[in-house]
């Protein structure tokens, strides 16, 4: 496996294109589909992140998700168009109900989202990990720890917000890639925390890198 994610990131960046999924050609062509599940407490910004990723903007209004929403985006990576299917799940238990096991079927990657200004949402991650375990999520599925709302970081309230080192240690302990982001602010203003290297089977390595690039380029 390549030793440096940054190098891979730079290589792949040149292949990146944005495509409107609504185009007829996109809909008629068969593409490999990657299903990515967004999970995390209610209000951490899963809907806004998927909206940012697929529509390229921060939604002016976001309501609590009921059940699940799907958003898709066609991305071109290394000459191949890939359909990225984002499953934006409800954070509120009452809106998840008995649907949960369907979310986890044939998943290719998971985003565990928390809000950097909410310690509760960070401690809530344990129950999301437990839900994954109960749904027999494979160890080899790439997992991303995403601290959202980095635009709201306030140094004067540091002890009420999620410490970056704590997040990184948590990610490492659970074999996740980890970074902070904001669905709200423009990508070039985002401050990033260093990426962690985690072990992955080679078959998933490419996809993992691509997800990472996607994440870095589009905020999620
Ligand atoms: N400042 C800031 N606000 C954000 C960001 N992302 C989301 N929000 C706000 O956080 C609130 C909740 O966002 P949602 O995307 O609906 O959260 P969710 O995780 O999908 O919530 P559920 O559907 O209930 O699970 C909204 O008021 C958003 O405007 C961000 O990056 N920065």
TrEMBL record:
InterPro entries the record matches? P-loop_NTPase, Small_GTP-bd, Small_GTPase
One term of GO molecular function: GTPase activity
Q: Which Pfam family would be a valid example here?
A: Ras
Q: Does the keyword Nucleotide-binding apply?
A: yes
Q: Which residues form the signal peptide?
A: none
Keywords (A to Z) from UniProt? GTP-binding, Nucleotide-binding
Similarity comment text for this entry: Belongs to the small GTPase superfamily. Rab family.
Q: Return the protein name.
A: RAB33B, member RAS oncogene family
Q: Which organism is it from?
A: Periophthalmus magnuspinnatus
């Amino acid at each position: 496996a390549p030793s440096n994610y940054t190098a891979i990131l730079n290589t792949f960046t040149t292949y990146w294109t944005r495509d409107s999924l609504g185009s007829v050609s996109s809909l008629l062509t068969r593409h490999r589909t990657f299903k990515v599940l967004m999970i995390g407490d209610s209000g951490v910004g899963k809907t806004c992140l998927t909206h940012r990723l697929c529509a390229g903007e921060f939604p002016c209004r976001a309501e609590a998700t009921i059940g699940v929403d799907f958003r898709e985006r066609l991305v071109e990576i290394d000459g191949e168009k890939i359909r990225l299917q984002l499953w934006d799940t409800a954070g509120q238990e009452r809106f998840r109900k008995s649907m949960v096991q369907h979310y986890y079927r044939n998943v290719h990657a998971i985003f565990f989202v928390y809000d950097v200004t909410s310690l509760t949402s960070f401690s809530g991650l344990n129950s999301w990990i437990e839900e994954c375990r109960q749904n027999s999520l494979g160890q080899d599925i790439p997992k991303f720890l995403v601290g959202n709302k980095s635009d709201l970081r306030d140094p004067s309230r540091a002890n009420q917000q999620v410490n970056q080192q704590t997040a990184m240690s948590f990610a490492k302990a659970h074999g996740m890639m980890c970074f902070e982001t904001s669905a709200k602010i423009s990508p070039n203003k985002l401050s990033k925390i260093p990426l962690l290297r985690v072990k992955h089977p080679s078959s998933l390595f490419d996809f993992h890198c691509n997800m990472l690039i996607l994440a870095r380029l589009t905020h999620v």
